[in-house]
Amino acid sequence: MLAFGGQEAFANEQPQIRPPSGALVRSSVSDVAIPPESQPQEQAETGNAAEGDAGAQGGIGAEKEAVPAAVETQHVNTVSFDIRPPARSPHIPKTRWQHMQGHSLWTRAAISALKSHGSPLVEMVPRDIANWCPAYSDNDDDQRRAFWVGYMSALAKHESTYKPWAVGGGGRWYGLLQILPATARGYKCNVGTGEALKNGAANLSCAVRIMAFTVKRDGVIHGRDKKWRGVSADWGPMRSSAKRQDMAGWLKRQNYCRLRNSTRPKSRP
């Protein structure tokens, strides 16, 4: 079995922002500190329920009759501003690793990689794509990225059974897609050690980097002439027809790979 890897950093942090004095601030970000005397009475919406962010709530501290009229007028006339971070895309494609802890982070990391150094995969149409995803040619970029994430999750089933801590080949291959540290370094992934490749997000980001090179170079996901081509050049499970059929069968059932006319309900007679 062959396999490869590296790490791409994947972290999002929300900055602490202190509103200017006297400003009326509306915020749904739970980690922005608002003094108790200026907190609104209404319950703020949660910023991201999937990530477990809690909503902020509070009340106006000073009673109305104790506040000078001039101050009230100043607050009413102050222009409010929005300090919420950009909304995260709600579209998370279906994958085969959804039962694993941390799967959403892996998926988002792979999507992020496909938007940057993996963009050649999204821009091209492999010659054998009909064997994997019949709708791919007509798909938009989001759906194409969904395919590649789903594809890697299907490959991970046969490489590591979705275990980011997996080590194979007598200590040679590491992580979700069983990447050789030397190969990760050769493709200039951000990390190139076995321990670093046990990070699921980093492993997938490096895999995207490798695939973006080999699939673009060979024009196919799987092929063989004198050499293995495409993804099959680096990943052993792709050299097994039974494993390829398992992967392709699962992918063709997903919404992002089904032809539009095959998903429409049949018209009534």
From TrEMBL:
It comes from the Bacteria. Residues 143-217 form the Transglycosylase SLT domain. Residues 1-58 are annotated as: Disordered. Pfam families: SLT. InterPro entries: Lysozyme-like_dom_sf (IPR023346), Transglycosylase_SLT_dom_1 (IPR008258). Belongs to the virb1 family. This is Lytic transglycosylase.
